[in-house]
Amino acid sequence: MLGWGERQVKAGRFLAGRLALWATVVTGIVFIVLQCFEYISHWKTLAPYSDSYGSIFYAITTFHAAHVVVGLLLLSYVGILPRYADTAGSPHRPYQTVALYWHFVDLVWIFVVALLYVIPNVLGHMHGH
After folding, report:
1. Distance between CA 71 and CA 98 in Å, rounded?
2. Whole-model pTM?
3. Domains, the chain, ordered by start
4. Which residues, other chains included, contact 113 with Cβ-Cβ below 8 Å and sequence gap of 6+?
5. Alpha carbon distance 2, 96 (integer Å)
6. What is the C-alpha to C-alpha distance for residues 71 and 76, in angstroms, rounded to an integer?
7. Residue 117 has what DSSP assignment?
8. Exposure of 60 in the CB half-sphere (CA atoms within 13 A)
9. What's the CA gap between 101 and 79, in Å, rounded?
């Protein structure tokens, strides 16, 4: 969504870019809420003090969630800026800068999912757990 918004801003369609940015904020909030529900559900069988996996799971996912929250704050700040266009040749591009941060957090999530969800489940099935 935010990548599409970046293209809209570059094309001078700032309202569409702003809508994409706010849709991304809503999606990020949904992610955080779902993570809270996941923690509540997991806590019954997996806590940070349960074992090394629990410790690693909560450390990595909480660290990632903190970065998502920072991204949401940055996106919200950019979302209330009066305009995104370069003014008087200014090198500052707030939309593109915050989008780059958000894309990095997204990319990291792919590795988090692989490391904490996919690989343990594959290995668990291979070993009959």
Report:
1. 7
2. 0.88
3. 2-126 (1.20.120.80)
4. none
5. 10
6. 8
7. I
8. 16
9. 15
